[in-house]
Amino acid sequence: MIKPLIVALLVFPTVPQTPPQPKPIIKVMVRVDAQGPQIIGTQHGLSSAELNQLRTMIDANVRLLYNIEVVPDYRQAAAALLVAADKVTVGQESIVVLSSVVNISKADGTNIFVNHNVFAVPNLDTAAKAVIGPLAAAEVSGAIKQP
Hints:
Elements: H1 2-11, E1 26-34, E2 43-44, H2 48-63, E3 68-71, E4 79-90, E5 93-105, E6 111-121, H3 124-130, H4 133-141
Parallel strand pairs: 1-3, 1-4
Antiparallel strand pairs: 2-4, 4-5, 5-6
């Protein structure tokens, strides 16, 4: 019994593992605004309360990303999530329409990644989740680097 144990220790030496280094925190500015002009023939617009709720929900969802810190000023940020949102009601149906841009820049201001998406979703909760998808993908892929 002792001989196989000695052989096993000789054949499979243990190697000390170094813990993985934590990723640096990535600073992201989040801005959510109301969309522009009226569309003829529709009831249109997010109320102020809905816009504030959407801002809060998007901000909370961005903060759930692994190494993200939300900052108020683009000059402090490595990336920006810019969202223009509106609600369109036709008849009894309402949809939330969003245009979102993820912009990642170098410290000198040179854009290295720009992603634009348009979403049409049934409610604010779905809207808040939809717009962070491209930002999450950029963070996971390593496209965002803090200067």
